[in-house]
Amino acid sequence: SRHWLAERVTAIALVPLTLWFVASMIAHVGSDYADFIAWIRTPLATGCMILLLIALFHHSALGLQVVIEDYVHSSVRLAAILAVRLGCYGLAVIGIIATLHIAFGG
Q: How far apart are CA 33 and CA 61, in angstroms?
């Protein structure tokens, strides 16, 4: 039941975060690189981007795990679940590091 609840919580968190991200991207259509960097350096944008990355990749890992558990019935099941988790959480860490790198002017 924890898995089910975690999927629902991340799905609910993704709704406003995704709407924020899409609205922000639409608002920055036509902006140059400097404007975009200035926007992502604001504390609100940095925080929301990090929350979006965490919720998105955690939700993805949970959902893909369910698919693997339902459709993979061999000895590679555990390896596939571990690979999916490693991939999702690795991408989340890379995205968070990139966001922080931009935010702190690196």
A: 32
